[in-house]
């Protein structure tokens, strides 16, 4: 069962100069319980796709084609059914509110429950994301934690409402390598335990290979390749993916001109479980 199903999906951003396409002709199915990595260099449209899945496109975005969410029993609500974490945990945490209260409030708003019960859940989640001394930590403010700890707290706040899907937009790219891998390991563990569908956005091939069941490669706003990670990484079917893997580089360090000779439309995309699969 697909949790998300996109057909001919596109997004353009409107500004004074007109409409600028950011995503075009995306056909993609995201199966329930899978960990999908959206991989691409800066500007390829990864965040736009992540925001579209979460129903969070900004006002100046115009979507076309179809984006269905057939795997949800009822129309999903952000926060309750779909959780989201961003690159900057500071953006999702309120600096003036104790972290335990923030997590408890997220649970209360999305799932109800009395304050005592949601506060206990908040502490359980702080413990689950390996924040030391959860009872004491719950009473602290975000600035009293490190960047990696803040991201763990943001993760707890996103997961406490038990969403079916978590969309993580470059959640580790502001962290040092050790914290990156620790958060990735934690995310993988929790997603596995809970059968969570994970959409993980990154430009880092090494991180992608550490978490992906499936990979969707975006290039200049088009999906150039999608499939099981083992297949995509061992036998890429699009010249862009092949060039990308040959560099073995973090995509942020790849000069966009390196791939200028590759036309994203020069290949029919194979989508697992989709029309082309
Ligand atoms: N709110 C916006 N208004 C106008 N244009 C936007 C907006 N957000 C993104 N864009 C443009 O859409 C294109 C895709 O951007 P997007 O952020 O989705 O790419 P990305 O792959 O996530 O890049 P990065 O890794 O740098 O965040 C870019 O050309 C970007 O400038």
Describe what this molecule looks like in 3D:
Belongs to the ABC transporter superfamily. One of its GO terms (molecular function) is ATP binding. It is a peripheral membrane protein. There is one protein chain. This protein has 277 residues and is α/β, with parallel strands linked by helices. The chain has two domains: 142 residues, Rossmann fold, CATH 3.40.50; 74 residues, no CATH class. Helix content is 35%, strand content 25%. It has ten helices and nine strands. The chain has a six-stranded mixed sheet, with helices on both faces. A hairpin with a 2-residue loop joins β1 and β2. It starts with a strand and ends in a 30-residue tail after the last helix. The site of adenosine-5'-triphosphate has 14 residues, from β1 and α1.
Key phrases:
277 residues, alpha/beta, Rossmann fold, 2 domains, 25% strand, globular, disordered C terminus, binds adenosine-5'-triphosphate, nucleotide-binding, P-loop_NTPase
